[in-house]
């Protein structure tokens, strides 16, 4: 039997490897290298430019944490913009809220969406199902530059790292436009890298310093994402008026009656309680 | 230059690898295979039977979380028993509390202690320095079986996995004896494995079902330990009367004036807020 391993270098001298049962698909889109794999422990997974994006085993962690945190702070959110998130998991989770009226999803690479529809229906299942969702295959930075003022209540930035196609989503220009297109009650959640390995911690600090210069409220929360470098991953929570802890609406969220495998309203509080070295690193950013 | 990598199989089909600058030491003790390595990202690290124990980069996380959680719940703890912990990091942290009167440390394998003193002074620094500490090179299970009633306020089980020398530390016999030798105010902290990979989750559940059958209060808390399988690791908190959240003594702990890089009293609360799938897995254990 063939002995095939996928390996990601988490640092130059640190590697994470998964034995591959089948290399299902490989192609170079205009934006990036896209690969789909089949494995035992993680089920199907896909990578962009060789970096792990989504596995069947733990995508629920990432998608729970990007969507339910803001929905529990402002349960009245109705108009949502997703930037990136081509696998569809973020859209799937947010569309579970029946009162959401409109979701615009802006993914730069149509091939990611089409391939996830083919190979990862677990995450992509809602992408051609729900009439509230509109897909735009465009650059996210350009999209927010051209969008009208105050037309969204929530922006979810489900992006790759700030190298390659995701780069523009870590700029002042992008964050300022997010602020402009968000309503007064608006919340921005962004992929915030990781505090552990130096190269990721550097990007975490850069992102945080820009977001806290843009939004009156800018916090960071953590979760366990075992297939990402170090397994210690962060999202940013920024808003014009809502504090993610003081304004948490526990009962309102529980009344939605959503079953979640990672998120719960106690964990919501806990996720914002950061280790001292992470807090200090963000304060000095 | 030689291309040398240390690899741990986190599952049969999942590997974590670190590039090794130098294989400093390798020996087979009467109990296990012991190896010390030098690396760039993690500094020095050592393994037992090929499994990662301690790295210079992130040992502070593990040692903060095993010691400061119980000390912040009962700041009057004076008599401590450490089972395992041959690297010395747990002893080092607990001995930072000046009011601690006595620490007995029971490590089955003297070679681990001697080699850590030679290669890992960062963790082993207090093992021959502090007169309050007594080292016993014995089996931890046998030690608690023979110890007198109610002579400790805190037991810290800093053990390997429940295979090999650590096996006896995951039994009813051990937990019952821990309960017996603990004072009425006593707390037991134990290495509680991980919820993510199935084989570790299985051991997590086995340990929890025994501990909750033994102690009136039995909770579990989590932390980010990137060099352990999945990076999502747990300790158990068991006691006769203290609840780790309701009885947290924030101010008393802060008055100790200890500088910690991972632990803080907010994180203390957050660490007990578990993901839904972990909570359910423990409830059904």
TrEMBL record, chains A, B:
Residues spanning the signal sequence: none
EC number from the UniProt entry: 2.5.1.16
Pathway of action: Amine and polyamine biosynthesis; spermidine biosynthesis; spermidine from putrescine: step 1/1
Protein residues bound to spermidine: 63, 87, 158-161
Domain of life: Bacteria
Keyword terms of this UniProt record: Polyamine biosynthesis, Spermidine biosynthesis, Transferase
Chain sites annotated for binding S-methyl-5'-thioadenosine: 32, 107, 139-140, 165
Annotated PABS domain residues: 3-240
Location of the active site: 158
GO molecular function: spermidine synthase activity
Top-level class of the enzyme under EC nomenclature: transferase
UniProt cross-references to PROSITE patterns, sorted A to Z: PABS_1, PABS_2
Keyword Transferase found: yes
GO CC term, one of those recorded: cytosol
Record InterPro entries: PABS, PABS_CS, SAM-dependent_MTases_sf, Spermi_synthase, Spermidine_synt_N, Spermidine_synt_N_sf
GO BP term, pick one: spermidine biosynthetic process
Catalysed conversion reaction: S-adenosyl 3-(methylsulfanyl)propylamine + putrescine = S-methyl-5'-thioadenosine + spermidine + H(+)
Oligomeric form and interacting partners: Homodimer or homotetramer.
Family the entry assigns: Belongs to the spermidine/spermine synthase family.
Annotated function: Catalyzes the irreversible transfer of a propylamine group from the amino donor S-adenosylmethioninamine (decarboxy-AdoMet) to putrescine (1,4-diaminobutane) to yield spermidine.
Protein's recorded name: Polyamine aminopropyltransferase
Organism: Holtiella tumoricola
């Amino acid at each position: 039997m063939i002995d095939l391993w996928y390996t990601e270098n988490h640092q130059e001298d640190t590697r994470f490897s998964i034995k591959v049962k089948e290399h299902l698909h490989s192609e170079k889109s205009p934006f990036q290298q896209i690969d789909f794999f089949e494995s035992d422990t993680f089920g199907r997974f896909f990578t962009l430019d060789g970096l792990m994006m989504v596995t069947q085993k733990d995508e629920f962690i990432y998608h729970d944490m990007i969507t339910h945190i803001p929905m529990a702070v402002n349960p009245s959110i109705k108009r949502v913009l997703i930037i990136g998130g081509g696998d569809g998991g973020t859209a799937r989770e947010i569309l579970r809220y029946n009162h959401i009226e409109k979701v615009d999803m802006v993914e730069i690479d149509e091939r990611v969406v089409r391939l996830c529809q083919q190979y990862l229906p677990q995450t992509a299942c809602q992408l051609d199902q729900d009439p509230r969702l509109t897909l735009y295959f465009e650059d996210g930075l350009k999209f927010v530059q051209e969008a009208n003022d105050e037309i969204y209540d929530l922006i979810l930035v489900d992006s790759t790292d700030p190298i390659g196609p995701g780069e523009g989503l870590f700029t002042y220009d992008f964050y300022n436009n997010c602020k402009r297109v968000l309503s007064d009650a608006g919340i921005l959640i962004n992929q915030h890298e990781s505090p552990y390995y130096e190269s990721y911690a550097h990007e975490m600090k850069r992102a945080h310093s820009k977001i806290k210069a843009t939004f009156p409220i800018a916090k960071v929360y953590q979760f366990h994402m075992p297939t990402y470098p170090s397994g210690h991953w962060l999202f940013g929570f920024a808003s014009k008026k809502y504090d993610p802890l003081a304004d948490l609406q526990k009962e309102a969220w529980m009344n939605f009656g959503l079953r979640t495998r990672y998120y719960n309203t106690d964990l919501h509080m806990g996720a914002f309680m950061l280790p001292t070295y992470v807090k200090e690193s963000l304060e000095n950013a």
